[in-house]
TrEMBL record:
The keyword Transferase applies. It comes from Oryza glaberrima. Its EC number is 2.1.1.-. InterPro entries: Put_SAM_MeTrfase (IPR004159), SAM-dependent_MTases_sf (IPR029063). This is Methyltransferase. It is a single-pass membrane protein; Single-pass type II membrane protein.
Length: 618
């Protein structure tokens, strides 16, 4: 009775309430959520494993919003989340479905300049809203670096290249394993020896601390050139079309090598200007001498000042090979003369032709090039109102993309980048020079880098797969910003495809390349130019807030599922209300998900959703 009638003064009552709240928060903070488990059954075939569901424990503080969001369909609707839909599986024939490449709607496009092999996405009414299955017998890819030389045949069951390119040491089948000996059409003796020959012809070091960190391989085959450059700290973006050499890019991705579907046809490549230290073509079948040099002009756009272009195969050293190439000396000589003329018009310097390899170098600025236009004639410079970094559905033009102005003839246009590894953490020239505006400064770059180190530490605390070195290899950052997520993982055996969405406020892809990382542009209302099961882990920071009212959340999630490997992880970071809606859809996609707190504690509205895709096959 005494307790019922006792009245506390107002200040004392407030103090009691505050103490209770503090006690609750301390309990939450001191019992962090355990990581989602990664499978430890590496020796067991994948088709015998159960999916790694997020296990609950007495210390599990995963946040449950079902009381307020989705305890029933009525509650879900009231909270703004749609009712749960069990997403059906696609037919087994769609196991390698690439919505924007090689489909029937692509065949309606013009044949000229291979326009039909570019990106052509389906109209909304023809999109497949189902889960793309893995092929029967699919297994978790071999771990890097073993995967560089081998992949499971069941994951990429194609023998066309085995039959066609086996003699050139591209690929061969050995029972249930595909072997990649490291050869190529122009380097049958192996990629390492070929890379040494390129370095000798260019007069540079292709290795750690050298002038080349980012490279572009056009028409890459199974990407052995890029695969072997990785051991020399050179990160290569390899691309090839989905053509008669079916699945070559799929093979590259199964090897754990960066690659994507692409072609040089009518549109610019989806990369910014001044991105690559070296571009390479080894008998890539790109008609460099045609269309007034349009494709060499595009290579010039994406090459850094002082960057190198390497060409091996026709017409280089035609005097020796013309019979094997089944072409006349006159035809090959004319082609080589045309390429030399285009290179001169671009103000490139021919460094050397050594055997089957020819190397040109782009100037470090355009001071003398602009002064010599009257002498050389031919190509002019593009208009100043053209955006040199634009690379999403932008037509190629027959003009030279001008380099930024310099103070003197010895200055590097746009600023000189540091050598790797200093290049990763030094303020990129685009930021130091203020080209991104006052909102992105050297100070904000430094703070961003530190913030992402903290965030990645938190991710490793809630994702066992990311924490286990070697468990994951191919990573995708869907909204990469300044590349901080990838930079924070530099000591892990992973590579990250950094995507700058077309809906992003600032175009930061040039900054990402200046840091020595790689990436591409992408509109997430469309499918990505890659095969199913490309990535082991996907990171999506504020992506769905960025794309709010632009396209359907479910369509983006279905695309994420398409490119995610079985038992792969997705880490979402967004406002809690957005994450609840995402989880509601993901629960119908054979994903196991849970929401955990921000690294700064439970009072932050921004939280983290960790999802693991179940293992299942056609």
């Amino acid at each position: 009775m005494l307790l019922r009638t006792m009245k506390l003064p107002l200040p004392a009552m407030a103090a009691v309430v505050a103490l209770c709240a503090a006690s609750y928060l301390l309990a939450v903070w001191t019992h962090p959520a355990p990581p989602l488990p990664a499978s430890s059954l590496a020796a067991v075939p994948c088709n015998t494993r159960q999916p790694p569901a997020p296990a609950a424990s007495k210390n599990d503080t995963a946040l449950d919003f079902s009381i307020h969001h989705g305890a029933s369909e009525e509650d879900a609707a009231e909270a703004g989340a749609p009712p749960l839909r069990r997403v059906p599986a696609c037919d087994a024939g769609y196991s390698e479905h690439t919505p924007c490449e090689g489909q029937r709607w692509s065949l309606r496009q013009p044949r000229r300049r291979f326009a039909y092999r570019e990106r052509h996405c389906p109209p909304p009414a023809e999109r497949r809203r189902c889960l793309v299955p893995a092929p029967r017998g699919y297994r978790a890819p071999l771990r890097w670096p073993r995967s560089r030389d081998a992949a499971w045949y069941a994951n990429a069951p194609h023998e066309e290249l085995v039959a066609e390119k086996g003699v050139q040491n591209w690929i061969r089948r050995d029972g249930d394993v595909l072997r990649f000996p490291g050869g190529g059409t122009m380097f049958p003796h192996g990629a390492d020896r070929y890379i040494d020959d390129i370095a000798a012809a260019a007069g540079i070091t292709l290795g750690s601390g050298g002038a080349v960190r980012t490279a572009l391989d056009t028409g890459c085959g199974v990407a052995s050139w890029g695969a072997y450059l990785l051991s020399r700290d050179v990160l290569t973006m390899s691309f090839a079309p989905k053509d008669t050499h079916e699945a070559q890019v799929l093979f590259a991705l199964e090897r754990g090598v960066p690659a994507m579907l692409g072609i040089m046809a009518t549109k610019r490549l989806p990369y910014p200007a001044r991105a690559f230290d070296m571009a390479h073509c080894s008998r890539c079948l790109i008609p460099w001498s045609k269309y007034n040099g349009l494709y060499m002009i595009e290579v010039d756009r994406v090459l850094r000042p002082g960057g190198y272009w390497v060409l091996s195969g026709p017409p280089v050293n035609w005097e020796r090979h013309f019979k094997g190439w089944k072409r006349t000396p006159e035809d090959l000589s004319s082609e080589q003369s045309a390429i030399e003329a285009i290179a001169k018009s671009l103000c490139w310097t021919k460094v050397q032709q050594m055997g089957d390899i020819a190397v040109w170098q782009k100037p470090i600025n355009h001071v003398s090039c602009k002064a010599s236009r009257n002498e050389l004639g031919g190509l002019g410079f593009c208009n100043s109102n053209q955006d040199p970094d634009a690379g999403w559905y932008v037509n190629m033009e027959e003009c030279i993309t001008p380099l930024p102005e310099v103070s003197g003839p010895g200055d590097v246009a746009g600023g000189e980048v540091k050598r790797w590894l200093e290049r990763l953490t030094s303020p990129p020239p685009r930021i130091a020079g203020g080209s991104l505006g006052s909102s992105v400064t050297v100070d904000t770059f430094i703070k961003d880098s530190e913030m992402w180190r903290r965030r990645v530490d938190r991710y490793k605390g809630v994702s066992g797969g990311l924490a286990e070195k070697g468990r994951y290899r191919n990573l995708l950052d869907m909204n990469a910003g300044l590349g901080g997520f990838a930079a924070a993982l530099v000591d892990d055996p992973v590579w990250v495809m950094n995507v700058v969405p077309t809906a992003a406020v600032a175009n930061t892809l040039g900054v990402i390349y200046e840091r020595g990382l790689i990436g591409t542009y992408q509109d997430w209302c469309e499918a990505m130019s890659t095969y199913p099961r490309t990535y082991d882990l996907i990171h999506a920071y504020s992506l769905f807030t960025t794309y709010k009212d632009r396209c359907e959340m479910e369509d983006i999630l279905l695309e994420m599922d398409r490119v995610l490997r079985p038992e792969g992880t997705v880490i979402f970071r967004d406002d809690v209300d957005v994450l609840v809606k995402i989880k509601n859809i993901a629960d119908g996609m054979r994903w196991e998900s849970r929401i955990v707190d921000h690294e700064d504690g439970p009072m932050q509205r921004e939280k983290i959703l960790v999802s693991v895709k179940s293992y299942w096959t056609a």
